[in-house]
Amino acid sequence: MTQPEPDYDGPLLIAHRGYPFRYPENSAVGVQAAIDAGARFVEIDVQMSGDGAAVLLHDANCQRTAGVDRQVMDLPLARLKELNFNEDARLGSAYAQVSIPTLAEFVALVAGAPLDGAFVEVKQQSLERFGIPQVMDRVMTELRSDLQKFVVISFESAPLEYARSRHGAQIGWIVNAFSDDDRQRADLMAPQFVFCDHRKLPRSPQPWPGPWQWTLYSIDDPDEAIRLAGWGAGLIETNAIGELLEHPHLAGGAAAWVPRGGVTKT
Q: How far is it, in rounded angstroms, from Cα 31 to Cα 33?
């Protein structure tokens, strides 16, 4: 990997769902590969099993990643562990016996890794099925070993405010739209991070000022990542972490986290 320049001031890169450009998403092998590629930030998704375990999965249904048409919330952890989440429809037979990680296993995996931060997205389907207290208490129990490293993120503000008030969590809000209404909600919530799908940005937007860091997702083209960093995104999520870190103008995206204080309110 190209070594970053000492005065690097480009975007910091987040490995979105591990390293899905080359590995099954939200898998232990994918997260480890992202770390090995030089990632200093990772993002994963969390759903709940039928018996209350927090597991790494984006979809509520296991069909896309494991080939089984069942809701993750309907299956106990023991049954989920029997399934192969290798995404064979997308990746073929490249990966065999990819077990679904629990959030506790993810925390153990990154505990000794040279990571500066990990973003944990709690999915709406599990929140709707089991309720905010049950889900967020379980998630925060698993993350309590290092609240400085982990950031809880969600499209919903209520679970984030619960995690912050009850557990002292750092929070990141994923906006549904780059709208005046969402801007007002961000002002009220004051999260540490605001996430936005870069495709939702209007033609000539200005980043909302506030005490947060802007994070845009998911960008796999290095030139687009550089352009969006110039817009004001301090962090960029990518499915292709290794490839972006090899770009000479993005190699510093593996640099250690230095809080930038967000965009100052005026």
A: 5
| 100, pLDDT greater than 80 | yes
CA atoms of 216 and 152, how far apart (whole Å) = 16
pLDDT one-digit tens code per residue, 187-198:
999 999 999 999
- Helix segments in the chain, DSSP class H: 28-37, 63-66, 77-82, 88-91, 103-111, 124-130, 132-143, 157-167, 180-189, 222-231, 241-245
Q: Domain spans of the chain?
A: 12-254
Q: Can you give the pTM of this predicted structure?
A: 0.92
For residue 144, which amino acid is it? R
Closest by Cα among 207, 254, 233 to 4: 254
Write down the architecture of domain 12-254 according to CATH. Answer: Alpha-Beta Barrel (3.20)
Over range 53-62, report the average pLDDT.
98
Do 203 and 178 meet the contact criterion of CB atoms below 8 Å apart? no
Tokens of 203: 């033609």
What per-residue confidence (pLDDT) applies to 195? 97
Average pLDDT over residues 210-218: 96
pLDDT band of residue 3 (cuts 50, 70, 90) is: very low
Is 248 buried (19+), middle (13-18) or exposed (0-12) by CB count in 10 A? Answer: exposed
| 32 backbone φψ class: left, alpha, beta (φ>0; ψ -120 to 50) | alpha
**C-alpha to C-alpha distance for 254 and 114, rounded to whole angstroms:** 10
| CA–CA separation, 117 and 238 (whole Å) | 15
